[in-house]
Amino acid sequence: MRLHSLEVTAFGPYPGTEVVDFDVLGADGLFLLHGETGAGKTTLLDAIAFALFGKVPGVRNDARRLRCDYADNDTLTEVKLELSVQGYRLRLVRSPEYERPKRRGEGTTKQQARASLTWVGQPPGGYDRDGLIRIDEVSRTVERLLGMSAEQFFQVVLLPQGEFARFLRADTQEREQLLEKLFGTYRFADVERWFRDRRTECFRDLESRRAGAMRLVARVAQAAGEEPPEDHSADDEWLGVVASRLREAEDAAREKAKQAGVAAATAEQEMTKARELADRVRRVRTARAELAECERLAPQQQAWIAERAKARRAVPVVVANRGAGQLEVELKHAERAEEEATVAAKKAGFHRIDADESSLRAESARLTEEAGGLAQLLEDAKQQKKAKLRLTKLINDGWAAEEKVTSLEADLVALPEKLKVAREQLVLASEAAARLDGLKARKAELTERAKLRERLGDAEEKVKSAEAVMRKAIDAHQQARDHSLTIRARRLDGMAAELASQLAVGEACPVCGSADHPEPARPVPGAVSEAEEIAAVATEQESQSERGKAERAHQAAIADLTALQERLAESDETAELSEVDKLLAETAALAANREPQRELVRDLDKRSANISDLLSAAKEELASLRTEREQLGKTVEMRQKRLDPARGEYSDVRVRREHLLLSAAAVTELLRARGQREQLKARLTAQQTEVHEAAIAAGFTEVAHALDAARDELRLAELDRMTSELDNRAAAAKAVLAEPDLADINPDSAIDLDNVAAALATAREVADAEVAVLRESERRSADVRALAARLRAEWSALGPIESEYAELNALTDIVNGRGQNTRRMSLRSYVLAARLEEVAVAATARLSRMSQGRYSFVHSDARGSHGTRGGLGLDVLDDYSGKVRPAKTLSGGESFLASLSLALGLADVVAAETGGALLDTLFVDEGFGTLDPDTLDEVMDTLDELRAGGRVVGLVSHVEELRQRIPVRLRVRKARAGSSLEVIA
């Protein structure tokens, strides 16, 4: 992967657009990104990370504030990165999500995140030449081309500030978490968890099967009616003993049930004989009692027969009498109908009620004919009524139309004056709106100046305070420098003694090469050790750093104060601000009326045109109404002259015709009712004669006697039933007594069924009890046999499961660092230990070079304290002492060397592990300030070797000495409202 160019707009501290040409910067393979602390050096690395993956390294990604606070509202935050990966050149463009002010109205709106990938040249196979615009597709494509995730890229390419120093001093658990992220060994943790879950599942299955077997043992014992074995020693022998006991109990129960069944059968036969004899005695007794009862009821039966015969002779008389009664009822109804028809005829105006039938018919025909003559005038009367209603409506509509015309004419006359006033108000409001933005800008400027004037005193105090701090830091740095030079000189004076203290018998002198040491130098008074010199140099560098910070702070305070004084050089803004506020309020109030006035003018224009159209339409409508009213009035007058003679004394023709029809109908109804009444009266007289003749013919002297002898159908049926039933009872009793098997039966015989029934019940109870015992024995035997078969099958299946669990349990302990795993290393720790060992080997090559052969990394797989897991130990071998020491004992500069070596080694291993693209660009962020000049030379030589093969290395630092060592650098300048970039060659 090689970077070509980076362009950031409104990103981080950069309010405008800044462009970095990596092709120019990396021409020599090594460049420096230099600038003050907080100026935005690391932001460029964040921009590279954001363009590639849509997020930035470390905790800065959690803040979610990538947009520059100093950028203009209309400037879009955007990062453009052009790079080459695996022989393909592409351009990435990303914009983060952020809140921006609305272009219209108040408040903010969300600017959505965007991303695009464009191929510069031929795209890889399977990709569209037009590129990608979906955020997820762009991210997946970048990860696929680089061969690593965002976290791996941050650790491999953007070597971060302090990250590897923490990794160097971390404990096993923290180091494991970082390595697991980089090498993606989560799958091995999944394997460990799979083994644990599988063992838990197998153990649950085993326990479940064991519990199932124990439940089957308990069920066998319960089915057999015995107690389960207390020592859980159930086996085939125990099952055999249980089955033998059940077979013996079943045979004994079967024999007892057989004997009880024979006794019950004998008692059943005795009971059957006793019941048959008792039934014959009962039947004889019942038949004799039935014959005696029939003889007693014989006189009553004769009375029933006589009543039935008399009632049957009276039937014709009853039928004829019923017809006469019906005619009497109909005659009364006809008389009532004649009276009602008479009243209706009188109401209809006909008073000659006593006239004969021919007169009544003539009068009805006359009335009907006169009503028919009026039928043809009904339609004229109906049309005349509608015409009058329409005429009334036309008169009312005409009055309304005249009022509408008058009103519209008045409105049309008043509109021009209203329109003129509204347009004048609109012009004033528009002019006020045009002045409003200028007044707001002037107010904002004056307000800002007022705030700046309040800060002027603070800025002066800040300059004084910064100057005092700077002087103190300069003094402290000078003292520390003098002390460091003194310490170095004293150590040089005692260097011979220091070298002599390291000589050993038989070993060559590192200075002269001789194995003989006849007179080693002795320590001089006040000799200084290496540790004291390192401490003095560190103190001097720290004070130098503090001095630089104090100087920069002082210069920044002076720059702020100067800028404030320049901006506040004009006159006092308090009075002008008050006037602007007053004018702004008046103008805003007037401008707020612009839209309402514009809408009013628009409405008045529209209303003027509408009123003109409405006035024309109203006049046309008024003329039409007047014409139609005149024509309809003439038609109504002519039709009324024809209808007045026809209606006579009635309100209209229809009412008169309805009266004529009603009178004709009343006369006709009177004729019909009178004729029906006379006909029914004649039929009633004839029917009464027929009833009297029927009574004489049936043998009754009077009609009343015949009606008294009559009976209804239910009574006749009941008489027939009682007579026949008594005959049937006597015949049935005689038939019973005539049966052969009852001939020798004495009805006075006594039979004791209770004793026989009691003996039978006892025998049945004994038989049922023995059969129940037998069934229970058979059921137990069957249940035990079935459960025993299941238990033996369960025992057979349990053996392989126990063996499988034992094997899985041992293997799970080994994979998770327990049991037979003597190193207490889990599978994941073992894999990470192997990767860490590769990292240690790769990092040692660089650490040894940068420390002049003194230090090298040592990987340890020993267990930690208190039995904690091992495999991730990382110590340092000090060649001066020949001893392995913890990395935490390294000094600040040594820690930086070790951290940088570890980062570079880890970068090589991760790149090789992921199989990713060749990493031609590498960034190292800060840490150089802890190095002395000699060590810095070694570090620079090592970094210079990284340029082999065309690799570009970018250093991010504020150390001044690096500016003299690297020919091309990129400088970040901090301005009042953001930062800017400057390429210095």
From TrEMBL:
Keywords: Coiled coil, Exonuclease, Hydrolase, Nuclease. One of its GO terms (molecular function) is exonuclease activity. It comes from Kibdelosporangium banguiense. InterPro entries: AAA+_ATPase, P-loop_NTPase, Rad50/SbcC_AAA, Sigma_54_int_dom_ATP-bd_1. Residues 27-180 form the AAA+ ATPase domain. The keyword DNA-binding does not apply. Residues 429-476, 608-635 form a coiled coil. This is Nuclease SbcCD subunit C. The keyword Nuclease applies. Belongs to the SMC family. SbcC subfamily. Pfam families: AAA_23 (PF13476), SbcC_Walker_B (PF13558). Heterodimer of SbcC and SbcD.
